[in-house]
Amino acid sequence: MKRLIYQVSVGKPSKLYEHCTRSVENYCKEHKIDYVKQTSPKLWIRPDPFTSNRSAECQARPLPLPIFEKENAFEYLHRYDQVAIVDSDIWVRPNAPNIFHDFDSGVDFGAVVEREMPITKQYMNKIINYSNMQYSSLKDVDFSPDPRGYEFMNMGLMVMNKSILKYLRGESPQEFLGRPEFKRFIDGVGPWKWSTDQTLLNYWIRKEKMNIQRLHWKWNGLYTANTNIRECHFVHFFLKDKLPNNGENVDELMRIVQ
């Protein structure tokens, strides 16, 4: 099988991003997985200034919304059997096993469901509030809400099989993101003011009724939220304000997670 891990790191990278992407590149060499890191924008996705609810600062920034650049990875599905997209703030433990060996070849898409992670009570409350805000108004799909919140996947780490191409319907990444039903997410309308591609992708996989795999929580350990962070193969430093020196003190972070 031909396999690829894709990352996006546009603009000047922080010390943390450099450390994390280097760990992913080394991981790919160890497991003989192809690796691509995108370092400049290709899609240039911007919110519509006439309908956007995103901040004026966000709309005026010289770079486009980098949170939607990851979808460039879809282009590689024509050349690879399996593709994983890994956020640039995810550090891979040196002894981590091959993620593709834990991914079923018979499914379309896989990621970790947040409410299924071993997390703190404080973060569980955050999930409940956040997921209600993001998904409760999307009545045309079923996010299976329960007392732990809505069943959404954290898209900081996602894996897909070539079979997902049928849901792209021959579209380029630009055309895919340009679908009318996605405009509200990109523009940040209403509750999606601060949303990333996470809401858009969760909506898409549910709307299309894809065959999805709920990956083990060890593949996406949320730093400060996961109660078993040292057991995680991939550690996701997803909240910059929770990091020592905003993530610039990499040595201290490594001492904590190891």
> How are the strands ordered across the major sheet?
2-1-3-6-5-7
Number of strands: 9
Beta-strand residue fraction: 15-25%
Based on CA atoms alone, the radius of gyration comes out at 18 Å
| Largest sheet data | 6 strands, mixed
- Contiguous low-pLDDT stretches (5 residues minimum) are none
Number of helices: 8
Helix content: 25-40%
Q: Give the N-terminus to C-terminus distance in angstroms.
A: 32 Å
Alpha-beta classification: alpha/beta
> What is the string of helix and strand elements?
EHEHEEEHEHHHHEEEH
Summary, kept brief:
The chain is built from eight helices and nine strands. With 258 residues, it is an alpha/beta fold.
Task: Give the topology, please.
Layout: E1 3-8, H1 15-31, E2 34-38, H2 56-60, E3 82-86, E4 90-92, E5 109-113, H3 121-135, E6 153-161, H4 165-168, H5 173-177, H6 183-187, H7 197-207, E7 212-214, E8 221-222, E9 234-236, H8 250-257
Could you describe the 3D structure shown?
The chain has 258 residues and is α/β, with parallel strands linked by helices. The protein is built from 8 helices and 9 strands. The strands form 2 sheets. A 6-stranded mixed β-sheet has the order 2-1-3-6-5-7, sandwiched between helices. It has a 3-stranded mixed β-sheet with strand order 4-9-8. α1 links the parallel β1 and β2. It is globular, with a radius of gyration of 18 Å. The two termini are 32 Å apart. The mean pLDDT is 93.
